[in-house]
Design brief:
Among the domains are: 48-120, Rna Polymerase Sigma Factor, Chain: A (Orthogonal Bundle); 139-239, Arc Repressor Mutant, subunit A (Orthogonal Bundle). The longest helix is centred in the last third of the chain and has 26 residues, at 200-225. The chain is built from twelve helices and two strands; from the N terminus they run E-H-E-H-H-H-H-H-H-H-H-H-H-H. 59% of the residues lie in helices and 2% in strands. The chain has 254 residues and is mainly α. Residues 1-36, 38-47, 119-157 and 228-254 have low confidence and may be disordered. Helix 11 crosses helix 12 (200-225).
Amino acid sequence: METVETESDKENGQEWSLGQRQSLGQEQNAGQGAGQEQSPSQEREEGQSFQELATPLIDSLYRYAMKLTNNPEDAQDLVQDTFERGYKHFDSFTQGTNFAAWMTTIERNLFFNQYQKAKRSPKRANDATGEYNDWDIYAASEHQGSGLKSAEQTYADAYPPEEIMDALAKLSPERREVFILAAIDGKSYQEVADELGIKIGTVMSRLNRARTQLKKELQSYAMERGYSRIHLPGRQGSPAHPGPGKANKDGEEG
């Protein structure tokens, strides 16, 4: 083992290993103020702590990445990026809180940020395989207190997945996060509020505004592409769409 010996050590008849010196330095620096550079041993200990927390989450993070990307290679890349981002910002994680939720939030935000920048079209799986795909994720919204069909569900059957993902990407980060947690992940208002550290009323407000914005975005896609039959929620027997760029009253936002 590599050792470092000083004159004072020789006088005391002691030799300190490099590891012991680093450990001693860590103890000496423990009471110093923030903003100072960490020793290598501190960085290793932090990394080990992150690894202990993150390693058990690999499978669940990969499954969630598959739901988002529907592609094994993209899912693996997303998990790797999530681990890198989580490790880099591990000092911002509050010990004792929900680490799995923290990592899932990182993964979800990475996916939407990457998708919005790259504008890559999500891949849709063969329905016969039973695998998750972007369409399944988007249409999985069942968090409806009134039991009524939501705007995003109303139009889901009329759009390619890439248009749906584009609509989600246009939401503000705050609204998108609440929408995904409640409408896609299926969490209750209270669970969302607890996870984000906000009030239930704020959750409901952001979710309602997200749905309203999605409704407008999807309706805009319908008018641009001239889908033949578009029914707004709560309306029955709407006439056929007149064609691209020609909205009638039944096609306008109510």
